[in-house]
Amino acid sequence: MRSGIHVLLPLLTIFILRTAAHAQIVLSKVFGDSMVLQRGINIPVWGNSTPGALVVAKLGNIKATARADKEGKWQVKFPIFREGGPYVLEIAESEKPASGIKLKGILVGDVWLASGQSNMEWEVQQAKDANKEIANAGFPQIRFLVVEHSKQVKPQTDISAGKWKVCDSENVKTFSAAAYYFARKIHRDQNVPVGIIQSTWGGTPIEAWTSREMLLTSPITKARTLSNDTLMPDREDFVQDSLNLIRFWHIVYNPQNNTDKIVTVPEYDDAGWKTIEMPDVIKEPGVDYHEGMVWLRKKISLPPSFAGKDVTINMGHPEMNYSLYFNGHEICKNVWNASPAHSYTIPASVTRSGENAIAVRIAMLWGGGGLNAADDIYITDGCSTISLSGKWAFKKDLETALPKMLNYQYYPTVLFNTMIHPVIPYGIRGFIWYQGESNAAAAYHYRKLFPMLIADWRKRWRQGNLPFLFVQLANYMKTKPLPSESEWAELREAQTLALSQPNTGMACAIDIGEANDIHPKNKQEVGRRLALVANKMVYKQECIATGPTFQAFRKDGSCIRVSFANTGLGLSTNGSKKITGFAIAGKDKQFYWAAAMMAPGKGNEVIVCSDKVVEPVAVRYAWADNPECNLVNSEGLPAVPFRTDEWKGITQK
Fold it and tell me: Is residue 343 part of a domain?
């Protein structure tokens, strides 16, 4: 008898726990106060409750009901709403109305899912004109839900965390800059509330955002996806990687071993440190790569004229995360380049005549780190300027080493499982996507992988061919003196080829990148160009939404004529006398910079020639990591990079 009780007790406990779990109605975390729901469709709302319970939902004065299944899952669908609000959403079990849920401040408008890697994740406070933009960000009809980072080996039924927030000067700081500027223009142009579901993770490849089922359909991704089967949610290294991620960023953001109190003071002895030339990226002879916290120090002598004054220090273009100290006082703590300018005021109380000490704590991550050479580094009192260029003392390993990251967020399908799947089938107007940097080394495969993701998401949302708008990679890295092959150019080509998919649109950013920063700051223009595409393609406005696009070419003697579409009132070079960006080649496949001119009497043709190529067969435009190119249409939108040849590229393996 006792053994029977021992068997029944655990079963009874499980039954009670399961019953308790469904005793109260629960909404998916993607719903909340201040959310935006999609106009013009049957609006889905879902959650959990007591199995078999009748769920009654009310949005405004409109009711909808659903019966929970045996697992307690339910979904109601409201009829079509026009834009408007605010509404109250009330949901309860019919037999327990007092224990229901009430959400307030809900608007109906257009909802866009914004996804991708760091250039979509880049925050308003990190981008151009941050202070001005934040101060003027009073748009109560723009709302954001930022899905918290999470990775799992199996599809999840709910996001790990996230909360809808109204766009104001406090909340906007951490919104995606590209998505915010897109939403702002759509809101102004269409006069509708706009909701953004932001699901982003920096540095991640497209495979992480695609479902297992879709990845298994391609030989490109099948083997790597199947290798995920060795991962288990409770596997020690998978769990440890999440803990290491927390420790990793804690160290980056918080000085270890009291270094901020010891290393920063003028009296600290750095005689044993190595020296390095600044401004530059930190590199050591014989060391390919270092990741961790690094300290830089420099002693400078200030003349008596600087005494008793607030002075300004300009740090050039420090990369990623850093803190600046002057004579032991913290002048700034910069997180993810949150400051649009790296110029700071040093109070008069901190400076002194004679020797002063500057210390910089800087994170070296992913091969970057240093006081880069985009701008000069100096200190000034407004009258005199003292350069800070030259030798700096340099020391690593003063702090706790960063934990080794296995970075499972890079693995196939793990982000789809936790940051996309739980959002489906929230009613949306379409997708905006900014990603590709992490796939550049395998750009040829992106020709297949990108359309796979587009088809995957559309199929799962079951809203037809939802608009899919994306940003082409901006110009980046050093400008090369001669025409050359480029992984980034091939990735841009793969993105352009995705326009063959129905209801897709691309914003070209080939003219707004930065040579020394993979995260260009001008996200205003990125958002504006995405919104232009949406206005034309989705909202059916008459406008020129994209720059000139390659249409055709033909040989013309020893030259090649190239014709373009989307030229508006005609091609131009934004005031420059010379067209740049074209290269030409003969059958030997050797490219040379070409002379280019507008075809007489034609507003949409360019004639391309080179005295080094007598029999030209191919033309390329803006085919480089960071091309010098200036062809635009009458709206000032840049011509999309292209090539006329189909010669094997460097990523085609």
Answer: yes
Are residue 512 and residue 420 in the same domain, yes or no? Answer: yes
pLDDT at 7: 40
**SS3 for 489-509, per residue?**
HHHHHHHHHHHHCCCEEEECC
Closest CA to 360 of 340, 380, 344, 384: 344
* pTM, full prediction: 0.85
The span from the CA of 316 to the CA of 331, in Å, is 15
Which of these, 187, 211, 15, 39, lies nearest to 108 by C-alpha position?
39
Instruction: Report d(CA 367, CA 287) in Å as an integer.
Output: 11
Range of the domain at 564: 549-643
Angle at alpha carbon of residue 553, lines to 549 and 556, rounded to 5°:
140
Cβ–Cβ under 8 Å, residues 519 and 475 = no
Number of domains in the chain: 3
291 and 416 share a domain? no
Distance CA 326, CA 347 (A): 10
| Residue 62 belongs to some domain of the structure | no
Residues of the chain with pLDDT > 70, as a percent, come to 93
- In angstroms, rounded to a whole number, what is the distance separating the alpha carbons of residues 171 and 144? 9
Instruction: Give yes or no: residues 298 and 384 share one domain.
Output: yes
Residues in Cβ contact with 220 at an 8 Å cutoff, skipping those fewer than 6 apart: 445, 448, 449
Residues 6+ apart with CB under 8 A from 548: 564, 565, 566, 567, 571, 604, 631, 632, 633, 637, 638, 639, 640
Q: Please report, for the domain that includes residue 384, its CATH number.
A: 2.60.120.260
- Do residue 201 and residue 145 come from a single domain? yes
What's the CA gap between 520 and 513, in Å, rounded? 5
Instruction: Identify whether residues 382 and 474 lie together within a single domain.
Output: no
pLDDT value of position 339:
57
Q: State whether 440 and 482 are in the same domain.
A: yes
- If we measure between CA atoms, which residue out of 531, 122, 639 comes closest to residue 335? 122
1-10, 229-238, 387-396: segment of lowest average pLDDT: 1-10
Rg (CA), the chain: 28
Quick: pLDDT tens for 170-198: 999 999 999 999 999 999 999 999 999 99
Q: Are residues 360 and 477 in the same domain?
A: no
